[in-house]
Amino acid sequence: MRRFRIERTIGLSDVDATGRLRLDVVARYLQDAASEDVIDVGRPPSRHFWVVRRTELEVVEPFADDLRVELETWASGTAPTAASRRYSLHGSGGGHIEAESVWIHLDRDLRPLRLDDGFLEIYGPSTEGRRASTKLTLPPPTVPPDRDWPIRVVDIDRLGHVNNAAYWAPLEEVWAGRLGGRLRAVLEYRKPIDLGERVEIAHDGDAAWLVVDGEVRSAARLDPEGAPEAEQLA
């Protein structure tokens, strides 16, 4: 069964003022690991694209003074045009994060593309027959937006939309002061966000949404004490 590993040095710009590894940086590490994995097996992004549908993070032990992180990833489920990935991150100082993302497979015209036999031959064994669910489960906003989130040029990726990792940046703001311990966070991506769109944040306690012209583009939920035992990532 294929498992792929990368290492990263945790830089000054990857942490907050307390030394905590930020959620948007974790999301970037997950993206990097997935991209490097498919390149390593000879399936470069120039031939097809993957976009994130949902990401779930569980901070088992917070990253604080960790200088390096080792990340291992493997396929955890498949669907006709989607696949899920598990990730395990371990820091040099004892930090530990478990994560899973669901990715939609697209052709060069950004239309859903069925997984081919070559993909299933490489990544299928580690899934052990599990199905990747693309269902969105988080509720719509319960409050109106109360602040703007300005989009920057550097937030845009090669597909011309806001990169998935950047969606975690406003969550760092609305949940500031609540992210230092064990936690579980879920982010669902509804529709792309483009440069020039006015993005607003709706925030109600443990829930947050990014909204454009009244349309929800993403939804997120925070469980600040971590996942209940029965819901922890396996």
Describe the structure.
By secondary structure, this protein is of the alpha+beta class. It has one domain: Hotdog Thioesterase (Thiol Ester Dehydrase, Chain A, Roll). Helices cover 15% and strands 35% of the residues. The protein has helices spanning 23-40, 117-127, 169-174, and strands at 4-9, 49-61, 68-79, 82-91, 96-106, 147-148, 183-189, 200-204, 207-212, 215-223. Strands 1-3-4-5-2-7-10-9-8-6 form a 10-stranded antiparallel beta sheet. A hairpin with a 2-residue loop joins strand 3 (68-79) and strand 4. The longest helix is centred in the N-terminal third of the chain and has 18 residues, at 23-40. The chain is globular and about 45 Å long. The protein starts with a strand and ends in an 11-residue tail after the last strand. The mean pLDDT is 94.
Total E-strand runs? 10
**Total domain count:** 1
Detail the poorly predicted runs.
Answer: none
Name the overall outline.
globular
Q: What is Rg? A: 17 Å
The helix content is: 10-25%
CATH class value? Alpha Beta
Which homologous superfamily in CATH is the superfamily? Answer: Hotdog Thioesterase
Secondary-structure element string: EHEEEEHEHEEEE
Q: The CATH topology, please? A: Thiol Ester Dehydrase, Chain A
Q: Proportion of β residues?
A: 25-35%
**Overall pLDDT confidence:** 94
State the distance separating the first and last CA atoms: 17 Å
Assigned CATH architecture? Roll
Oligomer state of the chains in this structure: single chain
Determine the number of helices (DSSP H or I, runs of at least 4 residues): 3
Structural class: alpha+beta
Strand order of the largest sheet: 1-3-4-5-2-7-10-9-8-6
Largest sheet: 10 strands, antiparallel
